[in-house]
Amino acid sequence: MKNHQVSGRERQASFWKPGLSAGAAVLLAASLPPAYAQEQRFSFDISPQPLSSALLELGRQANLSVLAPSSLVDDKSAPGVRGDLSANDAFMRLLAGSGLRAEFVNPTAVRIVAQDDARLPARRPAPGAPEQASRETERIIVTGTTITGVYPASSPVTIYSADDIARTGATTMEQFIAKVPQNLGTFSQYAAGSTVDAGNPNGVTSADMRGLGVGTTLTLLNGRRVANSNSGQSVDISLIPASAIERVEILTDGASAIYGSDAIGGVVNFVLKKDFEGAETRASIGGVTDGGMKQGGFSQSLGGSWTGGSGLLAYNYHSASALDRSERDYSTPAGQGTLTPNDIRHNVFTTLQHDVTSQLRLGLDAGYAWRKVKNTYTVPFPAFESFSTFNSYASTTRQAFGSLGAVYDITDDLMASVDVSYSRTDVEGERASVYFNQAPTPPPTFSDFSTLGSSLDAVAKLEGVLLDLPGGSARFSVGAGVLEETFEGISAVTNAQSAGELGRQTLYGFGEVFLPLVSPKLDIPFVRQLELSLASRFTDYRDTSEPGIDQDFGSSVDPKVGLLWSPSEDLNLRGTYGRSFRAPSLTQLDRTSGAHYIFDLPVDGSPAYVMAIVAYPAPDLKPETAETYTLGFDFEPEAMSGFKLSGTYYSIDYTDRIGAAPTGGLSPFDNTSLLPDVIYRPPSAAFIEEGLRASSLFANLNTSGIDLSDPQAASSALFALPSLWIYDVRLRNLALSRQHGFDLSVSQSVSTGWGDLNLAANVTRILGYKQQSSPSAPARTATDIPGAPPDLRGRLSAGWSNGPLQATLGVNYVDDYSNPWVAGNPAVKSWTTVDLNIGYDVRAEGDASDEVVRLSLSVQNLLDEDPPFLGEGSNQAILAPIGFDPVNANPLGRLIMFSVSRKW
Fold first, then answer.
1. Most exposed residue of 192, 299, 357, 427, measured as fewest CB within 10 angstroms of its CB?
2. Strand partners, 19
3. Are 404 and 306 in the same domain?
4. Do 168 and 122 sit in the same domain of this protein?
5. How many CA atoms does the CB half-sphere of 497 hold within 13 Å?
6. Closest CA to 759 of 170, 1, 77
7. What is the CA angle 715-720-724, rounded to 5?
8. Which of 170, 36, 176 minimizes the C-alpha distance to 109?
9. Which phi and psi (to 5°) does residue 173 adopt?
10. Which among 507, 763, 748, 772 is positioned nearest to 641, based on CA atoms?
11. Nearest-angstrom CA–CA distance, 749 and 642
């Protein structure tokens, strides 16, 4: 998977422009004095390659800001440029025959325009106003900072353009995120209801960087929060259409000082298209080669510009049929059900920008998504032969988002902005259940479920130049805001109504400073560049639930420090330290979301009754805190043109992380002494009564014969049973959750007589991941077991292009791990799959316009490799015997998609 990581030589106030392809437009602000002129000569070494990346390289080598709309430079190639040339001459050679030219809008900023000026960038000045192109570049924010015009080079940020995503073969956002090695498929659309987390019956897909839990990765849309789906647990990224994406920015570092809560494991920012001129139509169709699952889609985009502004309107449609368990031999023993949902999606969004005056700019983003899914499955519950259910879940999700922002230039060096964003996710559905292994079998039960979540965020910010340092201009941002969140609904799992309308008001203030202490122009030996970033955020939580939850989480101040040191032009060393504070989510505080049930099975080899208390919060639930560290390097030797090597060591030390007590792959019922916080004798009748009152009886599952309708009487009777055990799966604060590991990426671009070749690799290795439920319990492994991250994941890719033809071959690897719940602890084999993507551009001879037809063929899992078999026997991570681990693999097999797009 090719990625875009700005190098040390690109980082001096570099940034990305929303609406520009990451490969097509990189904005590289210069650190040179104002006297710099376009005729200054440089030693250029740029190999033949796509025009987008060639412009990026030219800007890096000449320390220039280059504004290149994707509508102009996509699908074009550039010749090589080598030798001592002026910047102006280098641009002329690079753009020869492209129908484009370079226009210097100030001494350090260049924009690419059509030679006849018929296709200028979408933003144009108001009548009589000066050109604002350089101002335009100063208002761009990249994930990982609140300061416009600054690239957070000390943090590990990876940017995937729309072309990068297409080259992976992914046709949806959930397919793409599954190919990112740092992500774990904790919530995925595959085999709904089969994992221990049965709270994902609707096939929601969520980002989970580092496998810390979906609540620890902040998912943004155009840099703004989105209301959670899936009973308020996480953002459903499958509602974001791939055809609407301009780029995806992934920060694999803690960023609570920048964004507040939910940014402990990382941040994933989906940036939608903005600047677009004309129209584009896309259509795709395909399916698996073994089975009945088919998939198709259609999208239409319309964009235009006017004096002082621009706008874009886009519609997207996606449809997929289900893959049935009976179509996969390894899943047939699981009984009736689907492995992927019946899935229909509609999405429409619009974006508008307008210059009211030369100082005041307004922007509007708005969208609406509609998704209908249906899943069916049989689940032994728990994983014993005594009980099972056949479930059917059908749900409709409606998601709306909108944001309105205003930016005012107070002076050339000072800017004020106000932004208000709102998001709402509404899920409505019906669940039908049939219970098996009961005499007599009752008729099906039907129940409606629904959830409604909303998020309203308003923030005001002041930013600009703080002072001039020897290395350049120090920049700052300060601001304050308020975030209002609400959630209510009926659980799809327990059919219980939430405790009223849950709500929270979060007041926050933040400040950030970027200090370029040393720049290359100072010519200091072994300190070519030195940058320091400081950020801090104050957060105060206030409960607005009705009725009140009556839990005060107070306030917190969370800092972050980043340092970048470039001892030479070839090498950058970087590091960060940050602290995070996260209050429990609204659904984690909802005591009606849990369940209890009583079943009989052997415990420590003797007959017993087990009372399970599941998924509701312990009474003393506290906020989470974490400390995160990263140390990394970026190596780009000048002697090896096109070669890049980056590595990052990370450490995440969680305190009071919220989760169920870990088992580390052990069965709690076989040896209770090893898991004293998971399985234990009830401490009192009052403890049992609290569990009965705080949660719902799941599926009428009670094999004790004791009437549970009166919790007080039932608790006394249950406590009197000498063989009763408590299986405690409540949400609690863990004493320890610590992970550390290493990310490595390497790429090489080579130009040959038969085309351009790009090789890349992205690998993540977890060196250790331990969890401990309480200080008295032993620490357990949280990796290399089913349902958890493996210690090694990676993706290799090889891309080739020659004129209108492009091809990319990708190899995905998931390391082997063990299944401790199966006798003999057998290995779950490693899984290697191959993806192929081929694209061809059809263009009339001599036509240099954007009116091009692109044909593409993508094949995921080209060799049709089955997911690794989990083995026979009981499994505490996978409830149903589907034969594979849906957290780390998928059942699709070979998936072929053909698509065609036309720019008008």
1. 357
2. none
3. yes
4. no
5. 3
6. 1
7. 85
8. 36
9. -70, -35
10. 748
11. 5
Amino acid making up residue 673: S
- Output the CA torsion sign for 222, 224, 230, 234: positive
DSSP secondary structure, 482-494, as one string: EEEEEEEEE-TTT
- In terms of Cα–Cα distance, which of 582, 516, 584 is closest to 549? 584
How many contiguous H segments (helices) and E segments (strands) does the chain have? 10, 45
Angle, helices 711-719 vs 685-694, to 10°: value is 140
Q: Do 181 and 100 lie in a common domain?
A: no
Bridge partner list, 246: none
Confidence of residue 1 (pLDDT cuts 50, 70, 90): very low
697-739 pLDDT, tens digit each: 877 788 899 999 999 999 999 999 999 999 999 999 999 999 9
Q: Are residues 117 and 177 in the same domain?
A: no
Question: Do 199 and 62 have their domain in common?
Answer: no
Residues 124 and 167 in one domain: no
* Nearest-10 crossing angle of helices 87-94, 51-62: 170
Q: What are phi and psi of 133, to 5 degrees?
A: -60, -45
| pLDDT for 197 | 59
As a whole number of angstroms, the distance between CA 223 and CA 401 comes to 12
Is residue 195 a contact partner of residue 637, using CB atoms and an 8 Å limit? no
Number of domains observed in the structure of the chain: 2
Instruction: Identify the domain boundary among 107, 128, 149.
Output: 128
d(CA 831, CA 792): 11
Q: Is residue 727 part of a domain?
A: no
**Domain termination site, one of 111, 128, 145:** 128
Residues in the chain: 904
**What are the φ/ψ torsions at residue 45 (nearest 5 degrees)?**
-145, 90
Domain, as residue range, for 59: 8-128
DSSP, collapsed to helix, strand or coil, labels residue 849 as coil
The C-alpha angle 203, 398, 879, rounded to 5 degrees, equals 15
Task: Tell me the β-bridge partners of 361.
Answer: 355, 407
Q: Reply yes or no on whether the pLDDT at 562 is more than 50.
A: yes
**CATH code (residue 355):** 2.40.170.20
Specify which of 240-254, 324-338, 574-588, 887-901 reaches the highest per-range mean pLDDT: 887-901
Percent of the chain with pLDDT over 70: 86
Neighbours of 523 (CB within 10 A): 9
Residues 34 and 84 in one domain: yes
pLDDT digits (tens, 9 = 90+) for 452-491: 999 999 999 999 999 999 888 899 999 999 999 998 887 6
CATH code, domain with 121: 3.55.50.30
Q: How far apart are CA 873 and CA 381, in angstroms?
A: 14
Residue 351 and residue 305 in contact, taking contact as beta carbons nearer than 8 Å: no
